[in-house]
Amino acid sequence: MAPAEVMKTDSDLNQCIEDCLACHRVCVETLTYCLGKGGKHAEAGHLRLLMDCAEICQTSANFMLRGSELHSRTCFACSEVCKRCAESCGRMGDDVVMKACADMCTRCSDSCWKMGGGVMPQTPNPEAAQRAADLPA
């Protein structure tokens, strides 16, 4: 079977890039909103997730835009960070800005999960492989 990168269509790739760029923008805007709102919106862990999400979304978009062979790795990480950010934003109640951020993060997480193939690709570790080969049967 072909690697996950080969099995994706151009429309999947373009959609994921668009989702990552939109999520980056929404997270940066939401970060500013949360700082102004204060209280639970400005808790360190929540703000850190918004910053992490914005950063990994920008990075993933950049990897895909330049055709990096490693984009599935950044997409996997992006999916995980976006999922956590969506959960954090979702805990803020009926706040319309937070709901919009949670929705965008969920959409980006799903898109990146699809683009990343749903699993973290593993790089063979030649030292570990040799140690395993040296073990008695």
Describe the structure.
By secondary structure, the protein is an all-alpha fold. It has a single domain (9-134), classed as Substrate Binding Domain Of Dnak, Chain:A, Domain 2. 75% of the residues lie in helices and 0% in strands. It contains 6 helices and no strands. It has helices at 4-7, 10-37, 44-65, 71-90, 96-115, 126-134. Helix 2 packs antiparallel against helix 5 and helix 3 packs antiparallel against helix 4. The longest helix is centred in the N-terminal third of the chain and has 28 residues, at 10-37. It is globular. Residues 1-7 have low confidence and may be disordered. InterPro entries: Csp_YhjQ (IPR005560), YHJQ-like (IPR044543). This is Ferredoxin.
Summarize the structure.
Helix content is 75%, strand content 0%.
